[in-house]
Design a protein that fits this description.
The complex is a heterodimer. By secondary structure, chain A is α+β, with helices and mostly antiparallel strands. Chain A folds into 2 domains: 156 residues, Penicillin-binding protein 2a (Domain 2) (Alpha-Beta Complex), CATH 3.90.1310; 336 residues, DD-peptidase/beta-lactamase superfamily (Beta-lactamase). Chain A has 23 helices and 21 strands. In chain A, a hairpin with a 2-residue loop joins β19 and β20. In chain A, α10 packs antiparallel against α21 and α13 crosses α15. Chain A is elongated, with a radius of gyration of 32 Å. In chain B, a hairpin with a 2-residue loop joins β1 and β2. Chain B has a 3-stranded antiparallel β-sheet with strand order 1-2-3, with helices on one face. The longest helix of chain B is centred in the C-terminal third of the chain and has 33 residues. Chain B is mostly helical. Classes of the chains: A alpha+beta, B mainly alpha.
Chain lengths: 624, 415
């Protein structure tokens, strides 16, 4: 027995020790994480975000340095909070709040305490930084806007939210990400790739060199510079013309589908969403639910297109062979159908063939054409679907698939739609039930960019490229198949000529003859769209929307444009003027029709009083 | 070599060499970071340790060359020299981190307490192997106790309680030679009572003691010790458990209390008192199965574990060599100790056996306390890991201790 005491003791000790080691090294994996928190600091090297240029190489967006105050809560030591708050102009409660938030996010990972200090704010802090253990400065690059317009196109950058951090391992709390516009859609091009450095720390939290000689480190990759298809000058001018109005302008280059201008009104200066005041300004814009400056009307607003849509019905009529350019229809201040129902029209000579029908925008003419299209087939359902199919080939009723971060599909009804609302087959419906479609009212909705694309198709005589906003990446033209594929419509090329001619006549001696610009042959179409709003639960008609679509020059189209001015009354009143000025600006670079410009910019032609009406709570008159 | 040479035990020597060289590799890693990185840079611990290892090889040759009779014959003189060198510290000693345990020679120091261990072992062996000594007699027990306690008593006030604790190792040879099991039971019960009292509080412990005592008390006469003895024991135990609280609260210093509380899990370590152990556990735990590789340990490089190249050297093993490496080191120690036990048991002479048991006891206590501390199952007591930890005196002390026994074993047939 005496011999064995030591044997047993030694063996037991060895057994217990190995068991304990097994627990520490193999079973308890938390120690590995703790060792990394202890000894390895991950530092990111943020590359410069890519610059954004307009189509002519004019710089729109560059960068400026900014400094974030970061904290790693676990490393905090007691510090002079009064001094710290003084430097950063914070209240003590705000600081406590921010530190609590950081602690909740993670005691070991860095969080932003104060984002985006300017250079001068940073200078004061820099000297004192050594006194604040646990805090450090992360240099970042912020956007520096060279233009005060195009906020809707450019978008903005902001700190990532926790959801993005969870979903996308690339981002950590405090990183910046593109939101809205080009910044969002081309985030991965613009941001580049941040570099990572793993730094070995010692127990005093000092850096003692790279971890494993840097085998896990990566170099930052600079963001790519991009050139947009936007014309900054045109964009600026459109912005000016749209002041005191609501609506959108979309201008395309028909031959390529490049977006020349994308304007929404009202809008804001992109610089408002940079730096420490970003969050306050954003709230202000976000909560302006009346004028909705963050709402991109050029892309998102779905309006009834009104008369410009008649051109499509003319094309479908010709393609379907139900109408000839020489067929004339009479008009008696409107088109009477059914049991005494009438689609009204204004005064013009009668009867009219196709070209004057377009030029005079005769409702009667297009009611006839539309009925012939639908009634060509044995059932209205078949007719409706044939009509719908043609329109789909124009990219209508669906998302365009552009490289803009937002969009709407609009609406083009089909047979199934009417079957549903008329409860077919319990109740039957005929072409007359959908007659409003003839003149672009009724169930049709289009966004301004769809309208612009429609005009571009007409100007191209039957094809389009998907509208897009990116022209070059690091000086290399884009070659993305999506934007270089020609989409051909279901209407044969030859049928476009009479429609183009009709639109040219609109400009020469039709509804837009007042908008003529010397030396530029424009083809256009006015539109005046009825619209309604709910006021105190009652459907109330508001002043018509003013719409104008155009392209120029007629024979060699360089620009196709759609202008939408909410409650601007008839088409040539606001939208026509603006479109004509935009075309002149783009093609000539100067304005000769200064009378038009003066009229538009005149404060007495502001539409703000019109927008006040439905909010006033008092009865009001429309279309005056 | 004298006649009757049975040859050296190459197995023990082999394990010794593996431990020493593996230890050096870990010291190199733990103290890397400054200096030239040359293995023999004498301004760095790893360079010095290389020198110490070289000198210990030299020492081994000397120890193995001396006739084994020398150690028996001169043990008393060696013991006396050792005591004098310890006592001399009070006059000539140099104070390093609070302990006056060193004689200083330039940048090198000699720590006599490391050499006092083998001297005491020799003296005890000599005394116990004396034909007139009967360890069952109380007076002889007292004398043996004095031999052991003298160096410990000189070491304690230096202060170096850790080194003094090592002298508990001599219990093993005493017990092997016939010391009553009563001491073992009493010692164990005292420790158990102490810990139980700290965990449960004196009331529960007292109730438990009464329960057990009454259980034995009413057993048949033939199956129990005298009732008076049981009563005395029970009373002592209860008295002890009540005085433990008093001792713990009033005699212990706060740092001692903290060390106990943390190991016993009674106190969540928020103030960083258990920093050493905590960091050491993190370093070891982060090693996983295979470790991070030699000189690749992040905790070791960052010097998160204090005293890593000395008392906490095992944490480097754990981090850089993983479970496989650290378990191997444990097994090497266990093999060495078992091997030495086998050697000790095959000695014909009582002197050799007592010395052998002393060697095993000393190595074992170091192994137990040091690794126990590093892996967090023992309170913090600063003693080195034999053959492994940085330090010339320690390495030489252990080398001499071990190789005298290997020498004795090699000539066991001549006795």
């Amino acid at each position: 027995m005496r011999k064995f005491l030591l044997y047993i003791t030694i063996l037991t000790t060895g057994f217990v020790f190995i068991g304990r080691l097994f627990y520490l090294q193999v079973i308890d994996t938390s120690l590995v994480i703790r060792s990394q928190d202890n000894a390895i600091k991950v530092v990111y090297d943020y590359p410069q975000r890519g610059y954004i240029y307009d189509r002519n190489g004019e710089l729109m967006v560059s960068n400026q340095p900014s400094y974030d105050v970061m904290v790693i809560p676990r490393n905090l030591k007691p510090f002079d909070t009064a001094e710290f708050c003084g430097i950063l102009k914070l209240s003590r409660e705000e600081l406590e709040n921010k530190l609590d938030k950081a602690r909740i996010y993670s005691p070991m990972l860095p969080s932003v305490v104060i984002p985006q200090l300017t250079k001068s704010e940073y200078a004061i802090l820099q000297e004192k930084m050594r006194k604040y253990d646990g805090f450090y400065i992360q240099k970042r690059s912020l956007r520096d806007y060279q233009v005060d317009h195009s906020a809707n196109v450019l978008g903005y950058i902001a700190e990532v939210n926790p959801k993005i951090v969870n979903d996308n391992p690339y981002y950590i709390s405090g990183d910046l990400i593109g939101r809205a516009g080009v910044e969002s859609y081309y985030e991965e091009l613009l941001r580049g790739v941040k570099g990572v450095k793993h730094i070995q720390k010692d127990r005093f939290n000092r850096d003692i060199g790279p971890y494993k000689e840097g085998i896990y480190d990566t170099l930052p990759e600079k963001g790519k510079d991009i050139k947009l298809t936007i014309d900054s000058k045109l964009q600026e001018y459109g912005n000016l013309l749209m002041q005191n109005k609501r609506g959108g302008i979309v201008a395309l280059e028909p031959a390529t589908g490049e977006i020349l201008a994308l304007i929404t009104a009202p809008t804001f200066d992109p610089a408002e969403l940079v730096g420490r005041k970003r969050s306050k300004n954003y709230s202000k814009l976000h909560y302006d639910t009346i004028s909705r400056p963050l709402y991109d009307r050029g892309l998102l607003a779905e309006y009834p297109p009104g008369s410009p849509f008649k051109t499509l019905n003319a094309l479908i009529g010709l393609q379907e062979g139900v109408v000839d350019t020489d067929d004339a229809f009479s008009c008696n201040h409107g088109y009477t159908y059914g049991r005494g129902r009438k689609l009204g029209c204004h005064s013009h000579s009668s009867p009219l063939t196709m070209i004057p029908g377009i030029a005079q925008s005769c409702n009667s003419y297009f009611a006839n054409v539309y009925r012939r299209i639908i009634e060509k087939y044995s059932t209205p359902q078949e007719g409706m679907d044939a009509w719908n199919k043609h329109l789909k080939s124009f990219g209508l009723g669906d998302y365009l698939g552009s490289d803009l971060s937002t969009g709407r599909s609009g609406k083009i009804p089909d047979a199934a739609y009417y079957n549903k609302i008329y409860d077919y087959p319990t109740y039957k419906w005929y072409s007359t039930a959908t007659l409003s479609n003839a003149i672009g009212q009724g169930e049709i909705l289009m966004t301004p960019i769809q309208l612009a694309n429609m005009v571009a198709i007409i100007s191209n005589r039957g094809y389009f490229y998907t509208p897009h906003i990116l022209k070059e990446i690091n000086n290399n033209p884009i070659a993305e198949e999506k934007f270089t594929t020609k989409h051909i419509t279901s209407i044969e090329e030859k049928y476009y000529d009479p429609v183009v001619e009709g639109m040219h006549q609109v400009y020469l001696n039709g509804t837009a003859r007042s908008l003529q610009v010397e030396g530029i042959e424009i083809a256009g179409k006015t539109g005046t769209a009825e619209n309604f709003a709910k006021i105190d639960g009652k459907r109330t008609q508001l002043t018509d929307h003013s719409i104008f679509v155009a392209f120029a020059p007629v024979d060699n189209p360089k620009i196709a444009i759609a202008v939408f001015v909410e409650n601007g009354y008839w088409g040539s009143r606001y939208a026509g003027r603006i479109a004509s000025l935009m075309i002149e600006k783009y093609l000539k670079g100067t304005i000769t029709r200064t009378d038009l410009e003066k009229w538009i910019l005149d404060p007495s032609h502001s539409l703000e009083p019109e927008y006040e009406k439905p909010l006033s709570g008092e009865p009001f008159q429309i279309n005056i | 070599m004298s006649k009757g040479n049975a040859g050296f035990d190459w197995l023990s020597i082999g394990i010794y060499l593996i431990l020493v060289f593996f230890g050096w590799a870990n010291i190199y890693s733990a103290s890397l970071g400054s200096g030239t990185g040359s293995y023999f840079d004498l301004s760095q611990p790893y360079g010095k340790q290389a020198l110490f290892i070289g000198l210990s090889l030299f020492l081994i040759i000397i120890v193995l060359s001396v006739d084994s009779k020398f150690y028996q014959r001169f043990s008393s003189i060696i013991y006396l020299i050792s005591l004098l060198s310890l006592a001399g510290l009070f006059v000539f000693g140099k104070t390093i981190s609070g302990a006056t345990s060193w004689y200083s020679f330039g940048s090198f120091g000699i720590q006599p307490s490391e050499f006092a261990k083998f001297a005491t072992a020799l003296a005890l062996a000599k005394y116990l192997s004396d034909i007139q000594t009967n360890i069952r007699k109380l007076s002889h027990q007292v004398r043996a106790f004095i031999i052991i306690a003298l160096p410990a008593l000189i070491i304690i006030p230096q202060p170096d309680p850790g080194s003094a604790l090592v002298y508990a190792a001599f219990f093993f040879p005493l017990y092997r030679e016939g010391l009553s099991g009563f001491y073992l039971v009493t010692g164990f019960s005292t420790i158990a009572l102490f810990i139980l009292t700290l965990v449960l509080g004196p009331i529960y412990v007292a109730l438990g003691v009464l329960l057990i005592a009454s259980f034995i008390f009413f057993k048949k006469r033939s199956k129990r010790p005298g009732r008076a003895l049981i009563s005395i024991f029970a009373l002592c135990a209860i008295g002890l458990s009540f005085s433990v609280s008093y001792i713990f609260e009033n005699v212990f210093e706060q740092r001692h209390r903290d060390r106990f509380n943390i190991v016993l899990g009674k106190e969540v370590d928020s103030k960083g008192i258990g920093y050493n152990t905590n960091q050491s556990e993190i370093a070891i735990g982060s090693g996983g199965w295979f470790g991070k590789g030699w000189t690749e340990g992040t905790q070791t490089k960052g010097h998160f574990v204090p005293e890593q190249h000395t008392d906490y050297i095992f944490s480097t093993v754990g981090e850089e060599w993983g479970f496989l490496g650290s378990a191997t080191v444990i097994l090497l120690f266990v093999f060495l100790l078992i091997r030495l036990l086998i050697l000790a048991e095959r000695q014909r002479s009582q002197f050799n056996r007592v010395y052998g048991y002393s060697v095993i006891g000393i190595l074992f206590i170091h192994f137990l306390v040091n690794i126990g501390m590093v892996i967090g199952v023992f309170p913090t007591v600063g003693i080195p890991l034999p053959f492994f930890s940085y330090g010339g005196s320690g390495l030489w002390g252990f080398t001499i201790l071990l190789f005298i026994f290997i020498k004795l074993d090699s000539e066991r047939l001549s006795f």
